[in-house]
Design goal:
The structure is a single chain. This protein is α/β, with parallel strands linked by helices and 415 residues long. The protein has a domain of 29 residues. The chain is built from six helices and 15 strands. A nine-stranded mixed sheet has the order 5-6-7-8-9-10-11-12-14, covered by helices on one side. The chain has a four-stranded mixed sheet with strand order 1-2-4-3, with helices on one face. It has a two-stranded parallel sheet with strand order 13-15. Strand 3 and strand 4 form a beta hairpin. This is Leucine-rich repeat and transmembrane domain-containing protein 1. Keywords: Cell membrane, Disulfide bond, Ion channel, Ion transport, Leucine-rich repeat, Membrane, Repeat, Signal, Transmembrane, Transmembrane helix, Transport.
């Protein structure tokens, strides 16, 4: 049977039998019929076909064909039926496929791995609340159009660096509530359109200096409820479009290691960013305090002095050239009386919020001082004029009196 105009035809061979089931669909009517002689299912449908209805019709075709070949003594395996239905419909048996929204819903199915046969045009894949443990580069090879991937509430413990390399269009990635311990710095390099990344409720104890060279479009990053003690400021600065970041539920060391985070957070919030609180865990005297509310004076030992500039620069450079080393948490115990601060050559950025207040106060003080100086100058000038005038009058009166006294003796002598 040849498909006519505006028709599509799908033909699949039934494994190990030599038989065929053909699905022919048009875009005009909605009638379905089963051809007796050719075992052909002819169904008229619109573009958004109901995969489950299609599977039902196809099963009828297969049943009819099986009944024919069984009379001839042929053997047919039930597994072949399952494979055929799965391949033709492109929707796993334990999942629901929604062609209109291009969504495949495989939630709460007890899956141990990501289904291999998925519709190629899938844009949203929901796999939460399963028992998926491992992912590989091949896992998402057949779903390269994915935009939303939900892998939350599974048992994933590790992510190979090239896990998501095929997902060039991915925008939202949810990895909440797994057992991930470390994130490779190349993990998200192949996701140039990624906007939201949720890594909350895992076992992550450290993060790389960058999440990749193509992650500048990330606007939301959630790191809640992990085992983080510090985070490199370079990582945060590599996300220029970040609008929301969540830190709650980690074990932050509020020493010099997070001072850069404190400075970055103040600028981020001042520019309209959204974040939750960073609550200190150690040292003991700062436990339970909000990092942003700890005074700068307590971080005085974190700033390098002028005599140490060359030494600090050399230490910072050698640290980057050598292999990456991460400090063990026990080095900063709560009973220690000395805070081990790693000095960095990077200059302290200007705190914009404090700078505005400082400039305003300075302007007011300078204005008052100028007014006082002006008043003093006016008063001094007035005093000088009055004094000069007074002295001038006294001098004139003195001369006049002296002249009068000289005249009197002279007149007396003449008399």
């Amino acid at each position: 049977m040849t498909p006519g105009l505006n028709e599509i035809q799908v033909t699949k061979r039934i494994p190990k039998t030599g038989g065929r089931c053909t699905y022919t669909g048009t875009l005009i009517t909605r009638r379905s019929e089963l051809s007796e002689e050719t075992s052909v299912v002819q169904t008229n449908f619109f573009i958004d076909v109901d995969y489950k209805a299609f599977a039902t019709i196809l099963a009828e075709c297969m049943k009819k064909y099986i009944s024919k070949i069984m009379h001839k003594g042929s053997l047919f395996f039930v597994s072949s039926i399952i494979i055929l239905v799965e391949v033709v419909t492109s929707c796993p048996l334990k999942c629901l496929c929604h062609p209109n929204s291009r969504t495949v819903d495989c939630r709460n199915q007890g899956l141990a791995k990501v289904p291999s046969h998925l519709p190629a045009e899938t844009q949203t894949l929901l796999l939460s609340n399963n028992d998926i443990r491992k992912l590989s580069r091949r896992t998402f090879r057949s779903t390269q159009t994915l935009k939303i991937l939900d892998l939350s509430n599974n048992s994933i413990s590790g992510l190979p660096p090239e896990t998501f390399i095929e997902l060039k269009h991915l925008q939202i990635l949810n990895l909440t509530n797994n057992f991930i311990e470390y994130v490779d710095n190349k993990m998200f390099s192949s996701l140039p359109r990624l906007r939201a990344l949720d890594l909350s409720s895992n076992n992550i104890s450290r993060l790389p200096r960058t999440l990749g060279n193509k992650t500048e479009n990330i606007t939301l990053l959630s790191l809640k409820y992990n085992h983080l003690q510090e985070i490199d400021r370079l990582l945060l600065e590599s996300l220029p479009n970040l609008k929301m970041i969540l830190f709650k539920g980690n074990f932050w060391q509020c020493n010099c290691q997070v001072f850069g985070l404190k400075l970055w957070m103040e600028t981020f919030l001042y520019n309209g960013g959204i974040s939750d609180e960073i609550i200190c865990s150690i040292p003991e005297n700062r436990k339970g305090k909000d990092l942003l509310k700890i005074p700068y004076e307590l971080y005085g030992t974190c700033f390098p002095t002028a005599s140490q500039d060359h030494q600090v620069y050399w230490h910072h450079s050698s640290r980057h050239k050598g292999s990456a080393k991460h400090t063990h948490p026990s080095e900063y115990g709560g009973n220690s009386t000395h805070i081990n601060c790693e000095r960095k050559s990077k200059p302290r950025p200007v705190n914009l919020r404090h700078s505005v207040v400082t400039v305003a106060i300075t302007g007011v003080v300078c204005g008052i001082i100028c007014l006082m100086m002006l008043a003093a100058a006016v008063y001094g000038c007035a005093y000088a004029v009055i004094t000069a005038k007074y002295h001038q009058e006294n001098s004139y009166l003195g001369k006049e009196k002296g002249s009068h006294e000289e005249k009197e003796p002279f007149e007396n002598s003449l008399a």
